[in-house]
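JOB MANIFEST
job_type = single_chain_structure
chain_count = 1
residues = 412
[input]
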Amino acid sequence: MTEPLPVTLDDVRAAAGVIEGHVVRTPTRHSRTLSDIAGCDIYLKFENRQFTASFKERGALNRLMALTPEEKKRGVAAMSAGNHAQGVAYHAGRLGIPATIVMPVTAPFTKVKHTRDFGATVIQDGNDLKEANRAARAVAERDGLTFIHPYDDTKVIAGQGTLALEMLEDAPELDTLMVPVGGGGLISGIAVAAKALKPGITVYGAQAELYPVMRQAMRGEPLTEDPPAQTIAEGIAVKQPGALTAKIVKALVADILLVSEAAMEHALAMMLEIEKTVIEGAAAAGYAAVLKNRDLFAGRKVGIVMSGGNIDMRMLSNVILRELTREGRILTLDVAIADQPGALSRVAALVGDAGGNILEVSHNRMMSGLSAKSATLGMVIEARDAEHAAEGRAGLGKGGFPVLTGRRRAEV
């Protein structure tokens, strides 16, 4: 006999009743342009439109509402890279519950600021979620606070699952769901609700290549303990999947697909340019996974959860500039010029005649490796697309200024 799962459809429906009217019922909308690009029907769930710009409010509120009066009086503790922190802080403040949140020192500034603005006491401790978790549990034990886990809690899982009820109500034709995965709370709740309502639906997860622990747990593989680098998707940068969530994922999720940093940056930029909506790195993982696995999703009706929109403006700017460079719309190049009056103006005229826009210029006379009568002119140029950029480079060469170096488009 199969062991029952720790969360059921009834739990999710009960959570929906608890949080109704206190969180935003975000829209699920079909995207014609993204569908054409991906080769399947794409439906987006805009959880970045929650008040705290993340789905995490759902589970946090459901868990807070289950506290006893005494627990509410003593207060709660939580650990988070940002979105769970904001969800707990906002709803705890609204309910008059004291909240202490431990966030890793690597948490984005905007998430730390917003958590404090919601009235929580914020402690930054630990370099990652695993270390922050230990610190938060120590604070909870010391001060007698109830610890609100970001994903490995039945009330939290059920709260996140309410998202699936809305998606299938708004778009009952969906046959596939794509969900970003960190510790697994979101995908677990969604899988429980979706598979109970529509047994034939397929649920996939999308995880950052640098943090593939839920995929590894699902396959019985050793967990990656020390990722080689940080990820743009800090919201799913988890080193230890939940015990409850891993059990649900193994039972109900078809597969977890890994995506690169460049792929998430590309998907994030597409959402900004095409859908005119700002999302964070973790929220871009789903569409990135669909683009990477076109054959798998061809012809399907895919619901993608855009889990949040909390991204630092500086990081967003970096992503945009990096994507424009990959697409050839911004190129950095060097040309050799004679170190004499008029040379710069001739180069500028060639770029302008080709329809390019010079954003930055720098001269290097000292260490160019050229003749002392020459200089290296470095330029950052804006072009319409990669083809236009190639035309500009060719025009410089024909005009007597061959390009010495340049950046090629990175593979996504």
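[summary]
The chain has a mean pLDDT of 91.
Residues 109 and 283 are 18 Å apart (CA to CA).
exit_status = 0
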